[in-house]
Specification:
By secondary structure, this protein is α/β, with parallel strands linked by helices. The chain has 14 helices and 21 strands. Bound molecules: NADP nicotinamide-adenine-dinucleotide phosphate. NADP nicotinamide-adenine-dinucleotide phosphate binds next to helix 5.
Length: 499
């Protein structure tokens, strides 16, 4: 390892006397871009990002299905240090978010740290440093690894009988293929999550026939999505502080009106949300269609759908809601269990993600032999969703059981990165070489989290990607302010500092 150690800065001192450290960041999405910017702001320049794709952007690079947008307001779904006066809408489309991320990365010269086309497949700590290997065999070392690998990353492809027999065009929303024509064709969409609903609204007027295969009806919160006027954009440009003020105000509104509501199944805000969803559903004119679109679970039990035009779209003459279960896929379309055949030219799987993967399938091995694959054999857990006992100096952004769902994951990532960097400060200051959460702190956090999770609306009797194999919501079950409070500064008693 001599050659590798030579090319790194371990042992050097920064101009201010702190230890220089080498960082490997895995993934160049929102969190990876953020990590680079924040590390450099703290004076750390020895940073390399491994990105398996050929372009940054993460989820926004991958999710390019028609209608893709973020249902968190754009002023909030932005970095706190990079307000964007050019958002076109209150809720901006995915391509704009991708362009925003590319601009922020360019403004901060992030790409000089990024190595594209390299997937980290193995990371092993020798008691001194992390040794990493990519799929091409490239190796590297790091004092600290920041895993910015995302939550909604590995597409879930359902095991539908005959899927391979489909002779038309088959696409997953999370791996869209722009070369597949839609205009004038018969399109089937499987799923009724946010991705499906956004796709339906975007394509219904272009396609010949649209068949939406619904296994579970969803509550839909109406969305009002005005375009920003030129005057509003000019005002944002003239006064970035004012736009940031709006960012913080919207954050408060989100926390009070939604984020705090979902963690308390009995909250009055949830009653209000349910009413709004119900009124929205009542706009569906045909009683039979309305009945079939009526969920059998509480609003916000599954992740709420926020949409401007879904009910309008599904009432178009060429739109067909199919609520009979799928029996099998055949070459020419989908056969439902009642024997009916739905002819399709294009089959869209809007079937979501394998949400328990996180860093996996990467193999991660700690200095005492702790293996992530074993530690997470049952299900992924982490102290405060950030780190795992036995895997020192490894910090995850948007890791297991953190605030997901209808939050701004950018806001979450900022809090997590700042928190992690405070632990890194301990290393840079010479207080220790290794930092990891204690087993006790991790277990007691997980115990409290599981107990609190049972009181959330996600646990009120529906099936969703929030639930683990036991039916326990895999999410932060306390108010968002509690998350902000916990992220403000690490409780060093919860950590083992060594070396
Ligand atoms: P999802 O919410 O997990 O929805 C997957 C859909 O596929 C569900 O309707 C599910 O039905 C259906 N499905 C899965 N397997 C099936 C099968 N074998 N047969 C029939 N139907 C099947 O996935 P998603 O829509 O991609 O959204 C995932 C998450 O991404 C969202 O919850 C959200 O957090 C994020 N997202 C956010 C935005 C945004 O605007 N911010 C947009 C898109 C996605 P069941 O409900 O019956 O399980």
């Amino acid at each position: 390892m001599t050659d590798l150690d030579d090319r790194t800065s371990s042992g050097d001192l920064l101009p201010d006397g702190r230890r220089n450290l080498r960082f490997v960041v895995i993934g160049a999405g929102v969190s990876g871009i953020l990590a680079v910017i924040r590390l450099r702001a703290r004076g750390f320049e020895d940073v390399v990002v491994y990105e398996k794709a050929d372009r940054l952007g993460g989820t926004w690079r991958e999710n390019r299905y028609p209608g893709v947008a973020c249902d968190v307001p754009s002023v909030l779904y932005s970095f706190s240090f990079a307000p964007n006066p050019d958002w076109s809408h209150r809720f901006s489309p995915g391509a704009e978010i991708q362009a925003y991320l590319e601009k922020v990365a360019a403004d901060h010269d992030v790409e000089r740290s990024v190595v594209y086309g390299e997937e980290v497949v193995h990371a092993e700590h020798d008691g001194h440093r992390w040794h990493l290997r990519t799929d091409s065999g490239r190796t590297d070392v790091a004092d600290v690894v920041i895993a910015a690998t995302g939550v909604l990353h590995h597409p879930f492809v359902p095991g539908l009988d005959g899927l391979d027999d489909f002779a038309g065009d088959l696409v997953h929303t999370a791996r869209w293929d722009e070369d597949v024509p839609l205009a004038g064709r018969r399109v089937g969409i499987v799923g009724t999550g946010s991705s499906a609903v956004q796709t339906v609204g975007a394509i219904v007027d272009d396609v010949a026939e649209l068949h939406l295969f619904q296994r579970t009806a969803q509550w839909v919160l109406p969305q009002v999505n005005p375009a920003y006027t030129d005057d509003e954009k000019a005002a944002f440009r003239a006064d970035p502080e004012a736009q940031m003020q709006l960012h913080y105000e919207v954050s408060e509104l989100f926390a009070d009106g939604f984020a705090n509501a979902v963690v308390d199944a009995d909250s009055p805000q949830l009653v209000k949300i349910a009413e709004m969803c119900r009124e929205n559903l009542d706009t569906v004119a045909d009683p039979d269609l309305r009945a079939r679109l009526t969920p059998d679970h509480r609003a916000a039990c599954k992740r709420l759908i926020v949409a401007e035009d879904f009910y309008g779209a599904i009432q178009r003459p060429n739109a067909h809601l199919v609520t009979t279960d799928i029996d099998r896929i055949e070459a020419g379309g989908i056969r439902t269990v009642n024997g009916r055949f739905h002819e399709l030219d294009v089959l869209v799987l809007a079937t979501g993600f394998r949400v328990d993967r996180f860093l996996r399938p990467m193999e991660v091995v700690g200095p005492t032999g702790v293996r992530l694959s074993e530690a997470w054999a049952e299900r992924p857990t982490a102290y405060l969703s950030l780190s795992v006992p036995g895997l020192p100096n490894l910090f995850m952004v948007n890791g297991p059981n953190g605030p997901v769902g209808n939050f701004s994951l950018i806001e979450v990532a900022e809090l997590q990165v700042e928190y992690s960097l405070q632990l890194v400060d301990q290393i840079a200051a010479g207080e220790c070489r290794l930092v990891e959460p204690s087993v006790e702190a991790t277990e007691s956090h997980e115990e409290a989290r599981v107990a609190a999770a049972s009181k959330t609306v996600w646990a009120t009797g529906c099936n969703s990607w929030y639930l683990d194999d036991r039916g326990v919501p895999m999410a932060w079950p306390w108010p968002f302010r509690e998350f902000q409070r916990r992220m403000a500064a690490p409780d060093l008693d919860a950590y083992v500092l060594s070396g």
